[in-house]
């Protein structure tokens, strides 16, 4: 039938091992795994000989149609998820961020509306929390119990940052809900002071950005929130760990018993930051995000080794794209350059190139850090993040020998440049199957706008993630 598909002769890679089996898919679900499966006549069959079959990527860090720093991201829910599928990512978890005076429930409804009709793969949400009162407390509970939200993100930087007292109370509440706290860890007070000082000295270009928020400013916040996390016994997920010092600090806190997880980004693994200070405004502003991509050229390898060792668990994209014209808002004042970079399409290729092609990660490690660990942490496993009977049929047939060169000329994003421009990557998706439908077919993109479904992320009771 039209709703069935057979994938033959592939090497199936899960985070816990490799097997050689055929996969039979029906109505969007993996129905059977086995050798030489006999299936009814007339169904499509894909020969995956020589390819790896991977669980579709799970990118738990995207900002689509996101209002930030006075503007709105270039990638909307259509372009963002189209780019995702083209690159082998079949699930995203995006950040909802309410407007001032909007309740969390109103924000949730407005984000569902924005996404509906545009998304090309399944999507879940995290909610950003920017204050603390009884209304917020009650709405967080409703989001967990009625709307499939199990994670809340708090900022320690930007004007809407929370102080330690608020963080402490919110983390207690999140623990009681059986949810997960996500933290943007940078010391906002120090950044503001440094920014003022740099601008006064006449350092107004994009090079001022990293100077205002060096590694220890990131690491201090990581340490502080890990201490709070341990005091209140609330699990915490640190988003975008960008520096060696922050990663090491997180690992030390884990060793002391904090239940903390770490996510790094494709940008931090893919870009050698040593070139960054020498770029012109356009290029430097293009790569500008917070926390910054670090100038220390040993950072990407360090973070990759940490992924291998399990000191970091996840690679996200933090896709938060602004066009060249939007980046110019910050010409003459680096603190006004909209923060954010691309990565939704290229995350899988970049991790394969810098991780697997170099021999640091095995294919099973690759699956763990691009799909399985995020699915476990956000409690959508084993529906997502593995190839097993009963799981959603989200799969990537990955050709490890083919190469492609990343370029804005060919990418599926709406944004008008690509931070990985010119990077050659081994590892190309030949086929991407989204909910049982072939959405990349021999490298050709064939998506259906609006076909993605809202993914409820249930709370943990009790908290169960095991690495
Ligand atoms: N950092 C960014 O660079 N963009 C979006 C939000 C954030 O924390
Ligand atoms: Zn952030
Ligand atoms: Zn982000
Ligand atoms: Zn190579």
Describe the structure.
The chain is an alpha/beta fold and 467 residues long. Helices cover 32% and strands 23% of the residues. The protein has 14 helices and 21 strands. It has helices at 77-87, 104-115, 134-147, 164-177, 188-200, 207-212, 215-232, 244-255, 266-270, 281-286, 299-309, 324-327, 347-356, 363-377, and strands at residues 4-8, 11-14, 17-20, 22-26, 29-34, 44-47, 52-55, 57-62, 67-68, 71-72, 89-96, 122-128, 151-155, 180-184, 236-238, 260-265, 314-316, 395-405, 424-434, 437-441, 444-445. The strands form 4 sheets. An 8-stranded parallel β-sheet has the order 8-11-12-13-14-15-16-17. Strands 3-2-7-18-19-20-21 form a 7-stranded mixed β-sheet. The protein has a 4-stranded mixed β-sheet with strand order 5-4-1-6, with no helix packed on it. α3 runs parallel beside α4 (164-177) and α7 runs parallel beside α8 (244-255). The longest helix has 18 residues, at 215-232. It is globular and about 70 Å long. It starts with a strand and ends in a 22-residue tail after the last strand. Mean pLDDT is 96; it is low at 462-467. The structure holds dihydropyrimidine-2,4(1H,3H)-dione and zinc ion (3 copies). It holds the Pfam family Amidohydro_1. Homotetramer. Its cofactor is Zn(2+).
Total beta strand runs = 21
Strand order of the largest sheet: 8-11-12-13-14-15-16-17
| Radius of gyration, taken over Cα atoms and rounded to an integer in Å | 21 Å
The shape, in one word, is globular
Q: What is the share of helical residues?
A: 25-40%
Bound molecules: dihydropyrimidine-2,4(1H,3H)-dione, zinc ion
User: How would you characterize the largest beta sheet?
Assistant: 8 strands, parallel
Alpha-beta content class: alpha/beta
Mean pLDDT: 96
- β content, as a range? 15-25%
**Helix run count:** 14
Low-confidence stretches: 462-467
């Amino acid at each position: 039938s039209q709703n069935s598909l057979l994938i033959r002769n592939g090497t199936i890679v899960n985070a816990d091992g490799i097997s050689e089996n055929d996969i039979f898919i029906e109505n969007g679900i993996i129905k059977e795994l086995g050798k030489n499966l006999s299936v009814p006549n007339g169904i499509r069959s894909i020969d995956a000989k020589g390819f790896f079959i991977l669980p579709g990527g799970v990118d738990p860090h995207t900002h689509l149609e996101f209002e930030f720093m006075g503007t709105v991201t270039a990638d909307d829910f259509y372009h963002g998820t189209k780019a995702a599928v083209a690159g082998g990512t079949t699930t995203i978890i995006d950040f909802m961020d309410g407007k001032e005076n909007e309740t969390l429930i109103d924000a949730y409804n407005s984000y569902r509306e924005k996404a509906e009709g545009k998304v090309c793969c399944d999507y879940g949400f995290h909610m950003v929390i920017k204050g603390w009162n009884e209304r917020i407390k009650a709405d967080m509970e409703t989001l967990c119990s009625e709307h499939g939200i199990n994670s809340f993100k708090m900022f320690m930087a930007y004007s809407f940052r929370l102080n330690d007292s608020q963080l402490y109370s919110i983390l207690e509440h999140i623990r009681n809900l059986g949810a997960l706290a996500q933290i943007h860890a940078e010391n906002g007070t120090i950044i503001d002071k440094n920014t003022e000082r740099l601008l006064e000295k006449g350092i107004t270009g994009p090079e001022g950005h990293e100077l205002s928020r060096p590694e220890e400013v990131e690491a201090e916040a990581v340490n502080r929130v890990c201490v709070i996390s341990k005091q209140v016994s609330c699990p915490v997920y640190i988003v975008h760990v960008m520096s060696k010092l922050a990663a090491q600090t997180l690992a030390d806190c884990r060793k002391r018993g904090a239940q903390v997880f770490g996510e790094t980004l494709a940008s931090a693994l893919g870009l050698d930051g040593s070139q960054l200070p020498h770029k012109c405004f356009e290029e430097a502003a293009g790569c500008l995000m917070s926390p910054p991509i670090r100038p220390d050229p040993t950072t990407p390898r360090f973070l990759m080794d940490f992924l291998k060792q399990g000191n970091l668990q996840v690679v996200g994209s933090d896709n938060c794209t602004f066009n060249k014209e939007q980046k110019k808002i910050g010409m003459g004042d680096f603190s006004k350059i909209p923060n954010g970079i691309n990565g939704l399409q290229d995350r899988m290729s970049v991790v394969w190139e810098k991780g697997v092609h170099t021999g640091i990660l095995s294919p099973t490690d690759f699956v763990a850090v691009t799909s399985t660990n995020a699915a476990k942490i956000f409690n959508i496993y084993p529906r997502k993040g593995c190839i097993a009977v009963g799981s959603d049929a989200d799969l990537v047939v990955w050709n490890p020998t083919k190469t492609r060169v990343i370029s804005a000329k060919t990418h599926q994003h709406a944004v008008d440049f690509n931070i990985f421009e010119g990077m050659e990557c081994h590892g190309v998706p030949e086929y991407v199957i989204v909910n049982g439908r072939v959405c990349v077919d021999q490298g050709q993109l064939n998506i259906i706008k609006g076909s993605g479904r809202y993914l409820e992320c249930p709370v943990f009771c009790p908290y169960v993630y095991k690495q």
